[in-house]
Specification:
The protein is built from 5 helices and 18 strands. With about 270 residues, the protein is α+β, with helices and mostly antiparallel strands. The strands form 3 sheets. A 6-stranded mixed sheet has the order 1-5-18-4-3-2, with helices on both faces. Strands 7-6-17-14-9-10 form a 6-stranded antiparallel sheet, with no helix packed on it. The protein has a 6-stranded antiparallel sheet with strand order 13-12-11-8-15-16, with no helix packed on it. β9 and β10 form a beta hairpin.
Length: about 270
């Protein structure tokens, strides 16, 4: 079933109680932090929690959000990994006060449908971006359509991606795509190492747009599709749009939410 782009809203979080589910990545520093927090605040299963506290980096935060999408439970991340754009600073002593004062961002993921060359349909959700990447030594050849209209007959490149505002500082930014303000009604379509048209950077599209990539010459120039690190090989075509029916609730310390982080990132 198809879906629509990360529409971000600011909400006051529901009143917090002491029912916290602590989740941690596999790295030792995150596991150690979880053990110490559980001793201080107790621990419940995510389905019984008023808030989930995720300990790790941005990758683990995305993993947690995907796993929690069936629950209407906010997630508060604390950085115990290498990258922490979606995370708050790690402190143990004042966690309950921080949760009570936290600001909430609500985002919607992208939905991807991809057909491989064997005729198998794959579906996945992406909070950050959906990427198409060459899977062989030759550049990929992609045809790009927006809302059923062909906008580019051929893009020769290492790949292309469609990013949400929340994901615009991740792979999109590394590929020289634009940083999108949270709450903006746009998606970033960004080329990765475009060869023809030479140095084509991409386009800004309305959040309701339905984007389709058709892989040209797929036998000789194989392409893989990736939705937040969930990958599918030998892709024939991909369709992407955002999914308003799924809401991810993320908590941030006051003054350090996604809006502030996106602005700050552009001045560092």
């Amino acid at each position: 079933m198809f879906v629509s782009e990360p529409n971000v809203q600011h909400r006051k979080p529901k009143k917090m109680t002491k029912r916290i589910a602590f989740l941690a990545s596999d790295i030792k520093v995150a596991q150690t932090a979880r053990d110490s927090l559980v001793k201080l605040y107790g621990n419940v299963a995510p389905r019984d929690a008023d808030v989930v506290v995720a300990l790790g980096g941005d990758g683990f935060m995305l993993h947690t959000m995907h796993n929690m999408q069936h629950l209407d439970t906010p997630v508060y991340g604390m950085n115990r990994g290498t990258i922490g754009f979606l995370m708050n600073e790690f402190h143990k002593a004042d966690l309950l006060e921080r949760l009570a004062a936290a600001e909430e961002e609500v985002i919607n993921p992208l939905a991807m449908r991809a057909m491989d060359q064997a005729g198998k349909l794959h579906e996945a959700l992406a909070i950050n971006e959906v990427s198409l990447l060459r899977a062989g030594p030759q550049a990929a050849r992609l045809k790009i359509s927006v809302d059923g209209r062909v906008r580019m007959d051929e893009l020769v490149c290492d790949g292309a991606l469609l990013s949400t505002p929340a994901g615009s500082t991740a792979y999109n930014y590394s590929a020289h795509g634009p940083i999108l303000p949270i709450g903006s009604d746009v998606l970033a379509l960004t080329a990765i190492a475009a060869f023809r048209p030479r140095r084509w950077r991409g386009a800004l599209l309305p959040k309701i747009a339905k984007v389709r990539f058709d892989v040209l010459d797929a036998d000789k120039r194989p392409v893989m599709a990736d939705a937040d690190s969930v990958s599918f090989e030998d892709i024939d075509w991909v369709e992407i749009r955002s999914e308003p029916s799924i809401e991810h609730r993320i908590l941030f310390d006051p003054g350090h939410g996604l809006e502030e982080r996106l602005i700050s990132e552009q001045f560092t």
